[in-house]
Every structure is written in structure tokens, then in C-alpha cells.
Sequence to fold (261 residues):
Amino acid sequence: MRVSDIMATNPQSVAPGEFVTHAREIMREYNYDSLPVVDNGRVAGMITLQDIINVTSTRSDVTVSGYVRADVPRLTPDTGLPRAAFIVIRTDEGRVPVVDPDSRLVGLLSVKDIFKGLPELELEDRPVSEYMTRKVVVCQPEDSLSRVWLNMIHYGLTGFPVVGDRMEVIGMVTREDITKRGYARIERESEGKKNPTTVQKIMSTPAITVEENDSIRKAAKIFMERNIGRVPVVMNGKLTGIVDRYDVIRACRALQGVTPR
Fold:
């Protein structure tokens, strides 16, 4: 399997001269972490929501050109799946542009796209505890959505477990939850408002979880069947970590020995 078999085609992009506020609107509307920047038909780099979140709506004349990440990796349509997966999980932009020999944008590849070829990557049958992240950013039901949204962007995460006072997992809240329900237009200026919208209003309950001793294959199955990207890990009813799509890809035998070049 090659990149051309699984990549997203006809991707949205922005030009260096377009306003940052426009790029941010696109990312919020489609729940993107990043967008390719195309200059005169060729890929100039990527711009991320994390980089531009602090550009307030009052600075409407700021352009994309000052925020382009020019040194991002590129893939070609004929790149093999193992090498493509190796590159994607090591990027900070969430997606990698796919280009033709003239550096023209022909597609984008994300970790979600990689899952289409997961059987070919030979996923190990090992416990979740070997791959999960133990330091977890969480929120509580009474937290304001504006603060949670900004924290998600700050940490580059797509969702947080919602926990109680004893670290029991009671739900999940994601960026997609926020955007789908019309709360995406949350600015830093909104903080401090009286009666802010709280997490408990939109969080998903009950939470889908896995145990530390469960196989990483169980987590992968949940991601594919539920179309979600992160699952809290629990032990004795309390949160002990989190596992995501990137962890699953890292657990694949086919990536062993692969190099970026």
C-alpha cells in the first residue's frame, strides 16, 4: 500500500498573503489542526492552529506569511505505507502534505488516514500500558469551555478526559464536540464572562475507556469502530493514562527499522 491509496485528495489550503483570521476560520469549521500553505501553486509549508490561536480577531490584517512552517516534511504519492506512517507520527503539524515532482499539492496524509492500512503495518499484541501516556491533561465538568478550548490548542491535543475529584473518568470532551455544537468561536477575550458555558453541557458520557492490561489491539478497534482518536486508560476505576492513534501506529512491527529517508 502506498500514500496514493489512502491520502485525502483535493485538500483545502491557504496562500501566504491571506489573513490569519481566515485560515483560523477554516481550521475551526473543519476541525483541522493545520493547513498547507501554497505559494504560486507550490507547497511553501504548513500553518497550525496552535501557532495562530493568539492572533485576536481585532488584528484582522495579519497574514499567513509570518506563521508558515517551511521545514515540514513532504511525501509523494508513491511513498510506501511504513515510511509514510513513520514520518506522520513524528510531525507536530498533524498532517503531512503530499506533493508531485513539481512540489504541487496533490493531497494530505494524517494519522487517521494511516489507519486505513493498519492491517498491513502488523500491529503488536501488547498491553496498552507499554504505549500509553501517563501524564494526562484533564478537565472537570465545571470548567469553562473557553479555557478548555484554549488548553487543547496550547497542548496540541484533540480532547481531554473529564474527571471527578477522585480522578474517576466520567466523560470526554473533544474539540469536535465544541465545534459541532457551535462553541468554536471562543476567543481569549471571552474569558472572565459571567456564567460561562461549562464542560458538563457538552461532554460525552459515559466515557469509553480501556484498562492498562488490555491489548493495544483493543484500543485500535475502538478507534476504528467509534471514529475517535483518544481513549482514557483506567486501573481500579481511576485514570492512569491515555492512549491515542499515534500510540497504536508506534506499536506496529512494520515501522521497526524504518528511517525518514
